[in-house]
């Protein structure tokens, strides 16, 4: 597949790593967002309903934060299932990138932030090998999202 730089073995080990964290998609997705909002408070400005929340505890309990955490993890899960099929992978990444670029106007650097936090969480929970086998996937996702942003004139 032309656009993907992952070997079949890398795809398999990335899927294995992702499965571990995806088992608790809502809790882990929420943990990732809460960490992002706490460590990068400017990212909260994109979410009008999260703006007033200052404590991590409050964010963790929020249905909206939990709902979006789960949504982020579902989207990544769809991408992970199609790592060996560029066309299908791009079919998921492209509309997502376009929406964030044109409608939501989210700074693309936030995708890197969220991916780095996912990698941190993987390392904390499952060790360095788990993180290492998923790193290439996050690079792939971010590269494609950045390309879509460029096409949209960012």
From TrEMBL:
Pfam families: Globin. Keywords: Heme, Iron, Metal-binding, Oxygen transport, Transport. It comes from the Eukaryota. InterPro entries: Globin (IPR000971), Globin-like_sf (IPR009050), Globin/Proto (IPR012292), Globin_lamprey/hagfish (IPR013314). The keyword DNA repair does not apply. Its EC number is 1.15.1.1. GO terms for molecular function: heme binding; iron ion binding; oxygen binding; oxygen carrier activity; superoxide dismutase activity. It catalyses: Fe(II)-heme b-[protein] + nitric oxide + O2 = Fe(III)-heme b-[protein] + nitrate; Fe(III)-heme b-[protein] + nitric oxide + H2O = Fe(II)-heme b-[protein] + nitrite + 2 H(+); H2O2 + AH2 = A + 2 H2O; 2 superoxide + 2 H(+) = H2O2 + O2. Gene3D superfamilies: Globins. Residues 5-150 form the Globin domain. It is an enzyme of class 1 (oxidoreductase). Involved in oxygen transport from the lung to the various peripheral tissues. Belongs to the globin family. This is superoxide dismutase.
